[in-house]
Predict the structure.
Amino acid sequence: MKDGFIKVAAATPKIRVADCEHNATEIINLCREASELGVKILVFPELCLTGYTCGDLFLRDTLLDAAEKALGRVISATESLDMLIVLGVPARHEGKLYNCAAALLAGRILGVVPKTLLPNYGEFYEKRWFEPGSSDNCWETLCGQGVCFGTSQYFPFTDVPGLTVGVEICEDLWASDPPSNRLAALGATVILNLSASNELVGKAAYRRELVKNQSARLNCAYIYADAGEGESSTDLVFAGHNIIAENGSILAESRFRTGLTVSEIDVQRLMYERRRNTTFRPSAEPKMNLQYSLAGASFTLGTADTVLTRPISRSPFVPENPDERDQRCGEIFNIQTNGLKKRMEHIGSKKLVVGVSGGLDSTLAMLVSAMAARALGLPPDALIAVTMPCFGTTERTKSNATVLAQRLGADLRLIDITASVRQHFADIGHDENDRSVTYENAQARERTQVLMDVANSVNGIVVGTGDLSELALGWATYNGDHMSMYGVNAGVPKTLVRYVVGWYADTCNDTELSAVLNDILATPVSPELLPAENGIISQKTEDLVGPYELHDFFLYYFVRWGMGPRKIFRLAQYAFAGQYDGDTILKWLRAFVRRFFTQQFKRSCLPDGPKVGSVALSPRGDWRMPSDAAPDVWLRELEDM
């Protein structure tokens, strides 16, 4: 399907134990409901046609015959639905009974997968009735069809690149070596689990972690359908705990209700992660001998455009849960602090020099530097805060920089660079009234020269302030604020810088420091390189380069998930609906792509700095890109939309 998105669902029907006709009706109704929602892969619980809790009734032909008849009815009723349906049914084979998953498509049984690992402990007695499945596939007749029977099968959809479905059943996941490990190694990107996991105190959290972690470990989507209402409550209760996970993230979840749990999985994203992850190794064993190509079926999954309902955050770098966000901010701050501390210990320096402007980035660098000095047992004034007003500096930012330095106990040095810059203009023959890039960059480079020379004079190091978002866009003066001796913010995107500073303001236990940090947070982001208008900042970065929340969104999906512009645009339209229209998103996405490619030369010679998250642009680590790579293919994709 378009962009690799496929709508999937886990279904919990309200059953009656041993009433196969009733259960078939419930299953058919849910299949039709799912079809109306555009679902293409639908999975039901373990033994849902009979009920998991039939006990010794499983050994009776009357129940087994009724189950096969009910399965035939489901096949006929869903023949016209464009959907892969996998449901639980008991199946007889060579005189033994198996707990199976039947995969149905367009009136065909694609295969019957028996459960591999049968629990026979605690409240479970499956070995009393069932045999474990064998990896030796064979043929069996079910509902008048010749079907593949065995655990060595999976279902590739040749019309959807990368989509291959594997099946395991309940306990299979809970074992030390789940069948899904082998299925994923053989190419399965989507694992379906038909389950009848009863509810106990604390079990839901454990089950959720199992599903989430297995999807992360295998770089796959994992759809878990659990038995629920209607199962016998003689000794157990079943909650219908349905979970849809993708590569370690829970996309949808429900519990203590019947019906559908729906979301969309992104197969392109999974395939990208497997290519990127060099420890994910395809199996060396021959491919399973029984596969099913769906290209010749009566439908293809790739024709319709999947309507998105899955959660897509506007701020992918920032956790939405406040507690998790605070924890993330604390972790980032500690990583930054320890990176700087290690660098100071290694070179034996006792002084930290920061150019403080009253803006967000330099504020975070100041806070990190103050904490690193404290961790090293240095006095507060080991931090030298240099504020360098010039043509665009406003009283507000100058005052905030001063108060910040004072509250941190830093050695504050005010060095007005106006005269130096004017002398430089005279030296190179630049007219001060010409407000071009030369006018702006001369100020940035003069500030860097001052910082470097101050650091030399005190045997210290210059702590860089530029953040990850600025590095992605090249929004830095080459050999100006682009350069430092250690860049503590190099791994922190702008949207997250704001939250880390806010977290510090909330937790610092210093009322005056908190007040100035909050005013800095409320100040428009600006390089302050053009003269102010009536004392107010005239040069606002986001007016020039675009909203950072959009650029951070683009950056995350472009670098972390390798997505092309068209798909990023689609996700951005969905995530920012009601905030930015399509033309605005497209405008800034074009700007992002163009700047990301043309400004690589600045990233190719970055100072050292700590990686803090899954996206980093260090030329020595995560991002290796030629400085003269052409953006044409990516820009054409936007133009061709």
Confidence is low (pLDDT under 50) at residues 290-300.
